[in-house]
C-alpha cells in the first residue's frame, strides 16, 4: 500500500470508528455535567443533550452493524466515565456509566432485530426502549437516598418525556444522515442492510 493509500484508509477508518466514539464521549460528558443544572422542578439541561447518544448509536448500527456499534458504545462508556469521574460527581458518573452502557446495549440489540423493517421503526423503538431503561437506572442510582423521592422521580419523569420526544424528533436527522452515510464509500465495506 502506498503512503497516500494508507493515509486515505486511515482517515476513512478514523471517520467510521473514532468519529462516532468521539461524538458519543462528548455527548455523555456534557450530559453528566448538565444534569447538575435544573431548568425547573422536573427537568435538567441534560435531557436535551443525552438523547443524541441514541442517534450516534443508531447511525453506527445502521451503517456498520451491531458489532461496530457495541465497540463505539464501549469506547464512549470507558472514556466518558473516566472523564466524568474527574469533571462530575462520582455518584453521577457511576450512575451515568451504568445507565449508559445498559441502555446503549439494549438499543443496539433492539435496533438490530428491527433493522429490516421500515426505516423509522428500528431507531424509534430502540430509542424508546433504551431511553426508558437509561432513565430508570440513572435516576435510581444517582439520586436514590440523596433527595426527596418525589423530586428525583419528578426529574426522571420529565427527563423521560423529553427523551421520548427526542426519539421522534431525531428520526428526521437519522434519515438524512444515514442517506448521506450510505452514499459514501467506507473502508468497512457495504452497509449491512439495503434499507437505509
UniProtKB/TrEMBL annotation:
Involved in the import of queuosine (Q) precursors, required for Q precursor salvage. It is a multi-pass membrane protein. The chain crosses the membrane at residues 16-36, 42-59, 71-88, 119-144, 164-183. It comes from Phaeovibrio sulfidiphilus. This is Probable queuosine precursor transporter. Signal peptide: none annotated. Pfam families: Vut_1. It comes from the Bacteria. Keywords: Cell inner membrane, Cell membrane, Membrane, Transmembrane, Transmembrane helix, Transport. Its main location: membrane. One of its GO terms (molecular function) is transmembrane transporter activity. The keyword Translocase does not apply.
Amino acid at each position: 500500500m502506498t503512503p497516500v493509500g494508507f493515509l486515505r484508509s486511515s482517515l476513512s477508518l478514523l471517520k467510521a470508528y473514532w468519529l462516532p466514539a468521539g461524538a458519543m464521549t462528548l455527548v455523555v460528558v456534557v450530559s453528566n455535567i448538565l444534569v447538575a443544572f435544573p431548568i425547573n422542578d422536573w427537568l435538567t439541561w441534560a435531557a436535551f443533550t443525552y438523547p443524541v447518544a441514541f442517534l450516534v448509536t443508531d447511525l453506527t448500527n445502521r451503517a456498520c452493524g451491531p458489532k461496530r456499534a457495541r465497540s463505539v458504545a464501549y469506547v464512549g462508556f470507558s472514556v466518558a466515565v473516566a472523564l466524568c469521574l474527574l469533571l462530575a460527581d462520582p455518584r453521577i458518573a457511576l450512575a451515568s456509566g451504568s445507565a449508559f452502557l445498559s441502555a446503549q446495549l439494549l438499543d443496539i440489540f433492539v435496533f438490530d432485530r428491527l433493522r429490516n423493517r421500515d426505516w423509522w421503526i428500528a431507531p424509534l423503538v430502540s430509542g424508546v426502549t433504551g431511553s426508558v431503561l437509561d432513565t430508570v437506572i440513572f435516576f435510581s442510582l444517582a439520586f436514590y437516598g440523596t433527595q426527596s423521592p418525589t423530586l428525583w422521580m419528578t426529574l426522571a419523569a420529565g427527563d423521560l418525556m423529553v427523551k421520548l420526544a427526542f426519539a421522534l424528533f431525531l428520526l428526521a436527522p437519522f434519515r438524512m444522515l444515514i442517506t448521506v452515510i450510505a452514499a459514501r464509500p467506507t473502508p468497512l465495506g457495504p452497509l449491512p442492510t439495503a434499507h437505509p
